[in-house]
């Protein structure tokens, strides 16, 4: 609908100087446009915004719109319905040209690799999986329920072809398993990173789980990790739930807010929070505040913080030692 409507809008704008101020007739072979552009009751509510804008443009003109059958509308479709003057080439010639183009792509791809076409041909026929895939592609006969490694090629069977005993995935060479490590080493020269390696690989080669192999190679490369732009993602390991209340507490400072800070202490078991308002976040103030809180709830076994300077200060060590003497034999301070 939009393409047919755009044709009318283009024609009206093109001949604006001839149409504006005069009544004219718009003829179209697309009947739905009559209810959109020719309705006397206004633009239909369900029309898209683009069609509404075009209807608004046509409001400036005085016209009638008329539907004409396609068979009786030949003068408008003349260019799109012209008879082919030049004869079509024979089918076998077209196929030969396509085959020749694919061979050029094959050699262009292999020239970028440290291996030769001969190597790919030999290793392809040594691979039982690729040999079976080539037979299926050549005969155009695949099993109804492929199993094992053959299943990996079944979903892409429509874009597989065989050129000079090499299996091709579109314009990319399918690399046998024996040559995949050598190909990865070549792609990894210069440590381009995951994104660039995948771009290079997707331009020339293919094998199942190729992207996964590239990611593993880059993840194991120390140079890539040092100079990489993004840090490696590490899965989160949540804290285990303590057995009893006040066994492990988490502390941190919040603020400043109106010149004051908040020492927040949260129990990992009950989620009970203790908040103390302080003027200073020094280690001395932290010790005094913690002693006040511990005098109410007792000493915890584990104290978790973000290793702020006030939490790792020497002034806090006596508090930790007293915690050890008062409650548990082996307290843990993190």
From TrEMBL:
PROSITE patterns attached to this UniProt entry: INTEGRASE
The UniProt GO MF terms for this protein read: endonuclease activity; hydrolase activity; nucleic acid binding; RNA-directed DNA polymerase activity
Look up the signal peptide feature and give its range: none
- The catalytic activity of this protein is classed by the Enzyme Commission as 2.7.7.49
| Keyword Oxidoreductase attributed | no
Boundaries of every Integrase catalytic domain copy: 238-334
* Cellular component, GO annotation: DNA polymerase complex
Q: What is this protein called?
A: RNA-directed DNA polymerase
The organism of origin for this protein: Caenorhabditis japonica
């Amino acid at each position: 609908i939009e393409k047919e409507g755009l044709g009318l809008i283009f024609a009206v704008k093109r001949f604006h100087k001839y149409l504006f101020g005069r009544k004219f007739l718009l003829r179209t072979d697309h009947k739905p446009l009559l209810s959109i552009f020719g309705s006397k009751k206004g633009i239909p509510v369900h029309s898209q915004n683009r069609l509404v804008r075009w209807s608004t443009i046509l409001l400036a003109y005085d016209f009638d719109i008329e539907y004409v059958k396609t068979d009786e509308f030949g003068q408008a479709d003349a260019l799109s319905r012209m008879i082919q003057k030049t004869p079509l080439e024979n089918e076998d010639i077209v196929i030969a040209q396509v085959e020749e183009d694919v061979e050029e792509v094959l050699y262009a791809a292999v020239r970028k690799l440290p291996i030769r076409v001969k190597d790919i041909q030999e290793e392809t026929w040594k691979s039982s999986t690729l040999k079976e895939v080539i037979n299926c592609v050549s005969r155009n006969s695949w099993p109804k329920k492929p199993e094992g490694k053959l299943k990996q090629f079944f979903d892409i069977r429509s874009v597989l072809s065989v050129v000079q005993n090499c299996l091709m995935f579109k314009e990319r060479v399918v690399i046998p398993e024996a040559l995949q490590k050598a190909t990865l080493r070549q792609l990894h020269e210069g440590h381009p990173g995951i994104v660039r390696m995948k771009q290079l690989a997707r331009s020339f080669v293919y094998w199942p789980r190729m992207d996964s192999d590239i990611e593993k190679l880059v993840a194991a490369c120390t140079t890539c990790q040092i100079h990489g732009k993004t840090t490696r993602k590490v899965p989160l390991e949540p804290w285990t739930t303590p057995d009893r209340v006040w066994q492990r507490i988490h502390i941190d400072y919040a603020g400043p807010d109106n010149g004051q800070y908040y020492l927040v202490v949260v129990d990992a078991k009950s989620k009970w929070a203790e908040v103390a308002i302080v003027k200073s976040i020094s280690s001395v103030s932290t010790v005094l505040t913690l002693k006040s809180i511990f005098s109410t709830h007792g000493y915890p076994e584990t104290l978790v913080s973000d290793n702020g300077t006030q939490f790792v200060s020497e002034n806090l060590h006596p508090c930790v030692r007293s915690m050890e003497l008062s409650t548990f034999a082996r307290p843990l301070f993190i």
